[in-house]
Input
Amino acid sequence: MLRVPADRKVNVGILGATGTVGQRFIALLADHPFFVVHALGASERSAGKPYRKAVNWKQTDPIPTAIRDLLVHPCSPQFFLDCAVVFSGLDADVAGDIEGAFRAADLAVFSNAKSYRRDPHVPLIVPLVNTSHLSVIPQQRSLHSPPLEKGFIVTNANCSTTGAVVPLAALERAFGPIESCMITTLQAISGAGYPGVPSLDIFDNVVPHISGEEEKMEWETLKILGGIAPDGAFDMHAAAPLRVSAACTRVPVLEGHTETVALRFARRPPPGPQQVRDALRAYVPEACELGCPSAPEHAVYVHEEDDRPQPRLDRNFQRGAGVSVGRVRECGVLDIKFVVLVNNVNIGAATSSIINAEVAIAKGIVQL
Amino acid sequence: MLRVPADRKVNVGILGATGTVGQRFIALLADHPFFVVHALGASERSAGKPYRKAVNWKQTDPIPTAIRDLLVHPCSPQFFLDCAVVFSGLDADVAGDIEGAFRAADLAVFSNAKSYRRDPHVPLIVPLVNTSHLSVIPQQRSLHSPPLEKGFIVTNANCSTTGAVVPLAALERAFGPIESCMITTLQAISGAGYPGVPSLDIFDNVVPHISGEEEKMEWETLKILGGIAPDGAFDMHAAAPLRVSAACTRVPVLEGHTETVALRFARRPPPGPQQVRDALRAYVPEACELGCPSAPEHAVYVHEEDDRPQPRLDRNFQRGAGVSVGRVRECGVLDIKFVVLVNNVNIGAATSSIINAEVAIAKGIVQL
Amino acid sequence: MLRVPADRKVNVGILGATGTVGQRFIALLADHPFFVVHALGASERSAGKPYRKAVNWKQTDPIPTAIRDLLVHPCSPQFFLDCAVVFSGLDADVAGDIEGAFRAADLAVFSNAKSYRRDPHVPLIVPLVNTSHLSVIPQQRSLHSPPLEKGFIVTNANCSTTGAVVPLAALERAFGPIESCMITTLQAISGAGYPGVPSLDIFDNVVPHISGEEEKMEWETLKILGGIAPDGAFDMHAAAPLRVSAACTRVPVLEGHTETVALRFARRPPPGPQQVRDALRAYVPEACELGCPSAPEHAVYVHEEDDRPQPRLDRNFQRGAGVSVGRVRECGVLDIKFVVLVNNVNIGAATSSIINAEVAIAKGIVQL
Amino acid sequence: MLRVPADRKVNVGILGATGTVGQRFIALLADHPFFVVHALGASERSAGKPYRKAVNWKQTDPIPTAIRDLLVHPCSPQFFLDCAVVFSGLDADVAGDIEGAFRAADLAVFSNAKSYRRDPHVPLIVPLVNTSHLSVIPQQRSLHSPPLEKGFIVTNANCSTTGAVVPLAALERAFGPIESCMITTLQAISGAGYPGVPSLDIFDNVVPHISGEEEKMEWETLKILGGIAPDGAFDMHAAAPLRVSAACTRVPVLEGHTETVALRFARRPPPGPQQVRDALRAYVPEACELGCPSAPEHAVYVHEEDDRPQPRLDRNFQRGAGVSVGRVRECGVLDIKFVVLVNNVNIGAATSSIINAEVAIAKGIVQL
Output
C-alpha cells in the first residue's frame, strides 16, 4: 500500500486554478485521502480575489467549501513554498516559463501542459503505463547547478494519446511489440478548454481537424511506450519501430473522447480477439499495484456489448480514471481493431497528474 | 447531352413515399427537368389519403404544391403501370417482396433498399462510379419467363459505402488497384430513418456501432469497384484483391456522414498527396459526361482548407450530389489518408437512385 | 428525526423497474439509509430474467451490485407481499389497473404515473409542498370493503408542475394567495421516457407542444396548492381562485426542466424581489422538518447570478432533490417573475415518490 | 409594383461584411433583382484582402462568385460614394461612429446595429410593421448643417423584438390597442454572432439570460408599435399604454428564435382564437403591398398543427422573410396566447435592412 500514513496530509498547489483543468483538479481533490489544496495560482487578473470570485465555475458539483474563499495568488513560486506537490493546469503559452521557474525554486511540478513533453530530460508519463520513467528524475535534477534537491517537472500526455496508449501498453506487455497502429479520434469539446470551441462551429457538425493533435499522438506514443536507454535517454520505442497514424476530429460531445483503433502486432500469428480481451482485462499497471488512491480498479474495462463504450454512459465510470474498450474484433487490413473511450478531463488530464504524484510519493521521489 | 427532349416528361412513381428517403425523393424531384412524380405508394395505413395527410413531413422546404393532394396508393404494381421509372425508398423488411412484384410486372425499379444489393443478377450502382454495370440488365431480364421487356431492379449502395467508393474509384482510375483501405465513419442520425435514433441515445454521445454497417461497407465496396466477368458475373475486384476494414459510429449530426479514409495502393512507389488531389479533381464519371441533370459538377470536390469538409457547411454543396474530400496527406501506416463527406440522404440515397435512372434513360435501358 | 431506527430496513418494491423512472428509482435507492430494494416488477417480456438482462440500462452509474442479478417479476401483488412500500414507475397505459390491484392487495403504492392524480380520493403530493394531504389516506382506505388496513395509493405530480409549485407554495406561505401565474416551460427530453423523442425531431430544434402537459400543469397546481375541505375533499384552491396559464415546449436538453414563471399576488402592494428571494430561502417544508433522508437541504435554492439556474450546471445539485430559482425580478405585467429549474427525473419523478414514502413512514401512515 | 425599372441596378455597400450578419447580407443579395453588391467594408485587419481571404465563411451556400475576389475596404465613406444604399452589419462597439460618419457623408445607411435605435430622430423599422416611420427622414436630414440631401440612418430592430411585433401589429390593426404582453424567448445561438456562445456554455443546456435583451424587447416594441406625434417625435404607444414583459433565454438551436407570447387586448370582450388566426392571416403590411422583392408572401404564416412552428422545419420558409405563428389559443390569465418563430438572421436581421431599403426606394426616400 501507498507509503503515506493515514493521518498524513500533503499540501498541494494548483497553477491555472481557474481554468478548465484547474477546476477539475479542485473537484477531484475535494475528497482526496491525503492531498490538501493549499495554494491556488492564476493570472494577475484573478490574483488577490477569493477563488469563488475569480473563477467562472463550470463543474456540476459546487465549489468545495474549503476552496470557496481561498485567496488566489499569482503564479510565483514564493506563494507555493509549502506545497510538496504543484499541479499545473496552465495554458501552453505561459506554462513553459512558469513551470521552469517553479522547478528552479526546487518545487515538484506535475504538469498537464505540453510545454515540456518533448524535453529529453522530462518524463512524459501516463500513470497507467510508464511510471517507470520516473527513474530519470535524478538526472533531470542534476542538470541544474547547483543540482536540485526536490524540484523536477513531470508531464502527462495529451488526452487522446492517453486513451490509446493504455490498451497498447497492455497488449505489448502480453504479446510483444506492436508494429503499426491506426487511430481515428472523435474528441469532445471540453478538450479545447474554455471558451474553446464556438458553438456555431460544432453544433450539428464534425470538425475533421484539431491543430497539432495528430502529430502529438504519433510522437507521444513513441516516448511513452518506449524504454530508457542506458544513458538515460528515452529510446522512442527504438528496438521495434512502431508506426502510428492518427486522424483527429472534433464531435459535438461534452466530455469523453472516443477512438477507433486498429493495430498490427510484430508477432505472427497475432493474438485473436479473445486473447486481446483477456490481456486487456489482466493488465495491472504499477499505479494500481502501489494502491494509489486515485487509480482505477480496472485500468482497462472491457465491454462485451456491441454498442459500448459510449461517452455519455461510460465517461464517469471509475470517476473517469480508467479507460474503456469495446468491440474487440479482427481487422481486415491490420490484425485487431477496437474502440476506446477516455475521459479527456480526468485520466486524460487532471487525474493523470494526480496519480503521477501519488506514484512519485509512493516511490519516494517526492519528498514529504 | 442526355437523350430526353426538352419538352418530354417522364412519369415516375415513388414507393415508400412517406418515409425519410421517400420524402427526399419528392423534395429532389420537385423541379426536375423531366421526371414528373405521377404515383405515390406507401403502407396500407396511408393508402387512400392525400399525401399531405398521410405524411409526417420533415423536410425544410414545404411539400411541393403538385404533390400535396396527390392520392397515396398501396404499393401494388397496378397503380404504377404508367410510370416509366419507379423509385423505391421502402424499408428493407418489405422491399424484397414489393420490388420483386414490380419487376415481375415489367416495371423499372431503382431501389435504395438493401434487399437486392447482394443479388448476383442485380447491379449495385453508385452513379458516380460504376454505371457500366447497367450492362447486366439484359441478363437480369432474361432470367424471367417469359423474359421481361422493360422490367428490372437496380440498387444503389449504402450511404457510407457511397461516400468512400467515389474517391476510391477516382484513385483506381488514375493509379491502378488499391490494395487495402481502412475507414472510420461518423454517421448522421438521418441515416437511421424516422423515428430512428432515440434522442436519449445520441445526445452528447457517440454510439460506436451500427448494426450490419461495417459488413455492408466491406462487401459492397468490392461489388461496386469490381468488374463484370465474361459470363456476366460481378467479379468482386478479383483481379487485384482489395481488403476493406470499416469502423462505423453514429454521431450527433443531422445530415452528412464524415469518414476518415486511409489506403494503400498496389503500385510502388505510391502517388503522393498532390497527385491524389489532382486525380480526385480530374475525375469525371460517366453520369457527368452524359450530362445527367442531377449529377454534380464536381463528382469529388477537394478542399484545401485544413478543417474541411464539415457536414453542416458542406453537405448541401451541389445539392448534396457530389462527395467532398479534404485533408489529403500521407499516412504513416498505409500510403495516403483523407477525410470524406457524403450527404447520406442525397447522393447517399435518393439522388443516387435518380441519377441511376437518368443514366439508364440516357443509355436506352429505360424505355420511354 | 425520522421514526425509523438506525438499523431498521424497509423492503420496497419497484414497478416498471426497467423503464426510465424505474431505473432512476434503483439508482437513487442504491445507498438509501433504510429502503432496501426487495422486489422488481416489469412487463411479461422482462419477467423471469435477472435485472441486468431485462434492462437497457441508461444511467451513468452502473447497475448497483445488489440489483444486477435480482429476478424481475411480473407486476402481480403476490410477488410484492413482503414490501412495506411499492414505488411505481409504470407507464400510464398500464398503471391504472396494476396500481389498483396492488392497493386492493393492501399494499402501499407511491406512484409516479398520472392515472390516479385526478382521483378525488387519492392525494397528489409534491413532497416539498403538501404532505399534509396524506391526511386523506384513512378515508381512501375506508372506501374499500372491507376497508383496507395498510393499502393506499399516493401519487406525485407531473415533473413540470413540481418545479413550479414549490416556489409558489413558499410564496403563498409568506405572502398569502397568488392570483394568477403564467409559466413557459423548456423541458428536457428525458421527460418523455425511452425511446421517447426521436432525435430527428429535437436536434437543433424546439417543439412548442407536449401533449396534455399544459392542462396537467394548470389543473394539478390547483389540487396541490389547495386545501382539504371539511368533508375530506380537495378544495382546488377554492378560497382564493388561482388562474394558471402554461405554455410547454421541448428543448434539446437531456435532463432538467427550465421554467419562466410570472405571478400576481392577491395582496396589494405585492412583495418586492428581495422579499420574494428571502421568502424562498426561508421556506422549510414538512419533509425537511421531519428529517427525511432524501429531502434536500434547501427546498428552494436561490441563485444571485444573472445567468443561473442552468440545467447542465444545476440539475444535480442536492442530488436533484430541490428546486433552483434565479433571476427574481419585477414583472412589467404581473408582479414578479423568475426562472425555475427542476430535475425532472429526480424531484420531478422518482425522488418525489421516495420522499413521499419517507414522510408517510414518519407519520405512521405506512405501517412497518 | 416597386418603382425600380427591370433593368436598373442599384449599387449597395456592406459594412461589417465579414461578420455573421454581413455574410448573411451577401448570401441574401446574391440573386437580388436590382441590388448589386458594389463595395465591402470591414476592419483594418481585413482591408486590402480579397473577400474570400478576409472572411471565415460560415454559410451553407458557397461565397457568391461575384463576391469571392471583391476587395475588402476599410469602413470609410470614401470607398462607398458610389453606393446608393449602405447596409451595416457592424458590431455595436464601432457602429455608432462609423454609421454617423457615413450619414455625414450623405450616404443612406440601413443598420442592423443597436447604436441608433434609441435616437429620437432615427426610425426603428420592422419592415413588416412600421415603414410609415420613414416619414421622419426629412427631419433627420434637416438636423445637419448644411442639411443632408441624401444621407440618413434607418435602423431595424432586435431579432426577438422583430418576431413579436409582427403579429402584435397585425392584431392591433384588427382589434385595436394591446394592453399588456408577456413573452418568453428561446433564442438561437446565431443571435450572438461569431464566435459568440462557447459550446461548453450551451450544449445540453439553457442559459436563462441574455444581457440587455429583455430591456430591448420591452422598449423597442413601444417605439415600433407607436405612432409619430405632430412634432415628429415617436410617441411610444402613448395613446394606449402598452406594458411588455420579456423573459429571454438561449437554447441549443442554430437558427430561429421561438417565442411564447400571451397578450391582453384593451377591447372587451377580446377576440377569440379563430378571430386572431384570421386577422394574422389577413395582415398585409406596406412592404408587401409595394411589391418589395425581398418581402414574404405571408407576413405572418399561421400553422394549424399543434406542434408548429419549429425552428428547424420552419425557419427557412419564405427564405426566412416572414414570421410563423402557431398554437393560437385562449390564455387563462391574459386573453390569447400563441407561439412565434422568427428567423433571427434573416427577417430578424439582414432581411429587415434589405426590405427597409426596398421600401425606401419605392417611396423615393433613397434617391437613385
User: Anything to note?
Assistant: Chain D touches chain C through 42 residues (CB under 8 Å). Residues 159-343 of chain D form a domain with the Dihydrodipicolinate Reductase; domain 2 fold (CATH 3.30.360.10). Chain D has two domains: 10-158+350-362, 159-343.
